[in-house]
Amino acid sequence: MMPKPTAREVNFDGLVGPTHNYSGLAHGNLAAARHQGAIANPRAAALQGLAKMKALHDEGFAQAVLPPHHRPNLDLLRRLGFAGGDTTIIRQAEREAPQLLRSASSAAAMWTANAATVTPSADSADARVHFTPANLQASLHRSLETETTAAALSAIFADEQHFSHHPALPATSILGDEGAANHTRLCEGYAHPGIHLFVYGRHGFGGDSAIRRFSARQSLEASQAIARQHGLTDEQCVFSAQHPGAIDAGAFHNDVIAVGNGRVLFYHEYAFADEQATLDALSRRMDTLDTTLCPIRVSNDSLPLQTAISTYLFNSQLLSREDGSMMLIVPAECDTDPTVAEVIEAIVDDTDNPITEARAFDIKQSMDNGGGPACLRLRVVLTDAERDALGAKVMLDDARYETLCDWVRRHYRDRLAIEDLADPALVTESAAALDELSQLLQLGSIYPFQRT
């Protein structure tokens, strides 16, 4: 009998783009709304993300990068009736429709948890890794990402023997898809078969909703369609509604209020509309795989919902070490809040769960725009053969880290106000930076401006 292949989770973090700014575009994202109009520092944002990646690489975790998208997206502005050269279009958009220019300039693709949904080869019928880029139709600025995301994923995961790429779902509210931010895989080990938890906020075809303040982005129909695309069976899936109170409190994705890894599901009391039914369904399915769910529940009494959301405790990375223990990667804001710090300490001290360490990182530039450690990465489980088949140089090592830091320092501004988005120089600066990056990472011509 052939030995079972080993597999590791690789975190593909998004590199922050040169137009990182605080336009406050994301409805329901309280942090983004709070910091609207603030002065951004794209250089610091990119270097903060890279520092987190390097620290995790040094700890022995597999780390890779996904490229930024080219912004401003002038194709959008042309489609919306602005005409002329680049400078004319930008100036006209700023004068007549500044919100459109801000949407066209968004660097939100940095949050690659929204990039796609991924099924590892251990779970798929054809033993390939499956990808579906998210349509992100809930917001204009994010809906622009799908084409470049698909191109980047196709360039990196190019070998058809190992990887299968599906088209994004039709961009309609019925099939609103926000990617892996609403998807969690639970398993005994990465090479073992897993159970897929899909969390949705609404029914695409209607029905009563208790959500009153904000809009739910992920539809049940979208989650079901992705499961079908990836060939997952009913026995491999659990579909659970997100708690409407959490959405109205600012948990615009489920990964703001819950995170899972291995057998562990770390969640707030208000993560799911029917908590017990969700746990029961997961437990039954995991029993069929001869493994046991390890739920870590945080009650609202010990951590109020609003504090959980404002500090992004649950938007943390939960990473497995080779000895089976886990590390919780939290934003620095969790360290400075005494209530959250107490919750983390109790979890680490509890020997009934595998979390033995928590580590905080300064990613303030991302946090101020509403994205914590979990938002910044797309998780892809790969066997050794699948890692060897990657079609680009995106795995992080010491040399690539230094190269990327140098690239950021040479190309990124250290100050960007909203009014700076009307500077036509950003177009050429961004294009020059990304053209060089695509060569450094051997991605090929993934950007539209490289193909014209």
Q: What can you tell me about this protein's structure?
A:
- It is a single chain.
- This protein has 452 residues and is an alpha/beta fold.
- The chain has one domain: L-arginine/glycine Amidinotransferase, Chain A (5-stranded Propeller).
- The protein has 17 helices and 15 strands.
- The chain has helices spanning 30-34, 42-58, 74-79, 86-96, 98-104, 140-143, 146-156, 220-229, 244-249, 275-287, 305-311, 332-336, 338-349, 364-367, 384-388, 398-411, 425-440, and strands at 7-14, 62-66, 116-119, 129-133, 163-165, 183-187, 194-200, 237-241, 258-261, 264-268, 294-298, 317-320, 326-331, 355-361, 377-383.
- The strands form five sheets. The protein has a three-stranded mixed sheet. A three-stranded mixed sheet has the order 3-4-5.
- Helix 2 packs antiparallel against helix 16 and helix 4 packs across helix 5.
- The longest helix has 17 residues, at 42-58.
Which helices and strands occur, and which strands form pairs?
Blueprint: E1 7-14, H1 30-34, H2 42-58, E2 62-66, H3 74-79, H4 86-96, H5 98-104, E3 116-119, E4 129-133, H6 140-143, H7 146-156, E5 163-165, E6 183-187, E7 194-200, H8 220-229, E8 237-241, H9 244-249, E9 258-261, E10 264-268, H10 275-287, E11 294-298, H11 305-311, E12 317-320, E13 326-331, H12 332-336, H13 338-349, E14 355-361, H14 364-367, E15 377-383, H15 384-388, H16 398-411, H17 425-440
Parallel strand pairs: 1-2, 4-5, 7-8, 10-11, 13-14
Antiparallel strand pairs: 1-15, 3-4, 6-7, 9-10, 12-13
Helix pairs in contact: 2-16, 4-5, 16-17
